[in-house]
Amino acid sequence: MIQAIVTDIEGTTGSIHFVHQVLFPYASQHMADFVRQNAHQKQVSEQLDTVRMLADCPQADLAQVIEILLTWIAEDRKATPLKALQGILWEQGYQNGDFKGHVYADVVTQLEAWQQQGLALYVYSSGSIHAQKLLFAYSEAGDLTPLFRGYFDTTSGNKREVQSYQKIAQSIGLPAQDLLFLSDVVEELDAAQAAGWKTCQLVREPEMRTGTHPQVASFAHIQLQDF
Ligand SMILES: CSCCC(=O)C(=O)COP(=O)(O)O
Ligand SMILES: [Mg+2]
Fold first, then answer.
1. Domain segments of the chain: what residues?
2. Cα–Cα distance for residue pair 215/162, rounded to 1 Å
3. Cα(9) to centroid of ligand 1, in Å?
4. Among 6, 8, 10, which is best to mutate for testing ligand 1, by the most ligand atoms less than 8 A from CB?
5. Architecture of the domain made up of 4-15+100-226
6. Fold for domain 19-96?
7. What does the note under cofactor report (predicted)?
8. Are the folds of 4-15+100-226 and 19-96 the same?
9. pLDDT tens per residue across all 227 residues of the chain
10. Element (H, E) at 123
11. Closest ligand 1 atom to the C-alpha of 11?
């Protein structure tokens, strides 16, 4: 019996458009100034050092690190230090009211219903935990953070790797077969399934109908008794 639901964000709880046409452009636009102004802060300098290490450029100066970060944003690289910096940087955008987190209406209704039924709800996204909390705290539907019991990001591992789901199941403290993972990306669902999880693919756009996982177009169509 499903006891906990873990959901992806981009393409699942909210639109791909919001992430790629609002959040990523905001990060690209503000990254250089943000890095230059905050490079001396520990939480930023540590991430910049990790960027240098991952890029195999230990001597890179600030201008080069900024170039690497901008390239990674353009490539949609799920690199943990980039995601950490984006999270810090987006905070200002949310606080200024430059944008609100996009969440589909069916998601809000269904998450509330599941919470009422006693299910434990979690998020697993490549965006940093800080970025996840911001998106749901400043969502178009208001502060949705009380819905979630916990958050997981790439510090638990890559979303396409089986071990990430094993680690998250251990952290949640429930058997894998009692966990349902919701995502739009088949490779992520394949990894969760290989770890013993139940899976369901969100197909928000018809052209995304690929793979062999159970598919729904909306959270409203997810029937937990079918898993
Ligand atoms: C957490 S908000 C920003 C989302 C993001 O940065 C991203 O890369 C989307 O990843 P997801 O795993 O939710 O598809
Ligand atoms: Mg996704």
1. 4-15+100-226, 19-96
2. 21
3. 6
4. 10
5. 3-Layer(aba) Sandwich (3.40)
6. 1.10.720
7. Binds 1 Mg(2+) ion per subunit.
8. no
9. 999 999 999 999 999 999 999 999 999 999 999 999 999 999 999 999 999 999 999 999 999 999 999 999 999 999 999 999 999 999 999 999 999 999 999 999 999 999 999 999 999 999 999 999 999 999 999 999 999 999 999 999 999 999 999 999 999 999 999 999 999 999 999 999 999 999 999 999 876 667 789 999 999 999 999 99
10. strand 120-124
11. 14
Both tokens of 150, joined, read 């916990």
Spatial CA neighbour of 132 closest among 120, 116, 121: 121
Give the SS3 label for residue 177.
Answer: helix
- Over the range 64-88, which residues count as b (16 or more CB within 10 Å of their CB) and which as e? ebbbbbeebbeeeebbbbbbbbbbb
CB atoms within 10 A of CB 106: 17
Total-model pTM? 0.95
Burial class of residue 214 in the structure, from the number of CB atoms within 10 Å of its CB (0-12 exposed, 13-18 middle, 19+ buried): middle
Helix (H, G, I), strand (E, B) or coil at 152: strand
